Protein: Biofilm operon icaADBC HTH-type negative transcriptional regulator IcaR
Amino acid sequence: MGLSNISDLRKKEIVEAFYKTAIKEGLESTSIAKIAKSLDIPPSLIVHYYKSKDELVNALINHCLELYLKIFEKTYDSAIDSSQMLPSLINRMFSKDWNDLFDDGVYYSAYAMVFREPKFREKFSKIHKILRLKLSELLKECNETGMIKCINPDQTANQIFFLLDGTYFYINMLETYKEQNEHLESSKKLAYSILGL
Amino acid sequence: MGLSNISDLRKKEIVEAFYKTAIKEGLESTSIAKIAKSLDIPPSLIVHYYKSKDELVNALINHCLELYLKIFEKTYDSAIDSSQMLPSLINRMFSKDWNDLFDDGVYYSAYAMVFREPKFREKFSKIHKILRLKLSELLKECNETGMIKCINPDQTANQIFFLLDGTYFYINMLETYKEQNEHLESSKKLAYSILGL
DNA sequence: TTAATAGTTGAATGAGTATTCAATTAATTG
DNA sequence: CAATTAATTGAATACTCATTCAACTATTAA
Structure:
């Protein structure tokens, strides 16, 4: 993480202010002026660092996807020993308080842009393919230790993520924590069943 | 379907123009002026029928959700006989050309509003709960005919939809039709397996 | 036919938008 | 210290936004 000069620091600061404002106001209705106000700087300074709004949105999407990836990587690293890794990962993936680390409102707004901007589509697919690859590799390792018997690790990794994404997609519509938790538990069980754990 | 007077016709016309414009330009960047232009009417006429932008967005979300629900209901009705209903439904749910009936870009943009507008959250959850209920009832019927042995139809219906939503969420990021189809096929198989078919 | 209502128009309002630019201050380098 | 570069400012640009309003034209009812 270089961020040596002021320029890079400012750029990061601006993107983070964008992210925070977008959480409150919504991604599409967050203007350069609003970001500037939250940082108490003139709007022209933001334009100085990001030549256009498009460039700024681009930087935000990068920021979001990196954040998303980091949360996953952190989950991987936190496992005590390798044999505990898979169940530990599944448990954390299907738990609401883990999901709360990231703002879904901004995430889905950014995702919606995938349908009109091919470059965003590529970014999103890249990150999600990386995540699937990581899980797939973990499954292969667990296969070798005899923990699981997974015939097609790539396919299974995909299935687990389908289940994960679909579950969060639904529970975000639900009001009570109780309801959300019940569905997460149900999906977690199904995930275990798919893995043969 | 009343739509007796001109007022109701105009209102529907406006919402549909909103939807079509949103497909091309994106939901959040579709203004009243743009909708008006596409209909070749002055913006003030739109405001006359929908007192505010918020009311207009509300009407669009209703329109989208009704459209979504209708697609499902049509799929239900199209089954030749009741014994064919379940496999026929699953096949159509997990096929891309069926999904293409509805614009996902607009759908996810609307979904993103769920995080800031409780009234939209309620609308979305209502529709999705109806869909799950319908599938659950179908599973119960299939249980009675002995077609399947589903211990918890409500939970199973949820799981099928988790898988469905998660699969579409992912394949929308993918470029090639081939890739998309492979994942849909894989998920369809898992759905069959979950149902014990 | 007259009166009342509903549909439609175009112009105007004020606030907010992204972006440009010249001027000014701060930091860095020779 | 002097010269150069980078960071910052504030004002101004042209444009789009949602919304208002008075005037106008159909349509309908009495």
Remarks:
- The radius of gyration of chain B is 19 Å.
- The mean pLDDT of chain B is 93.
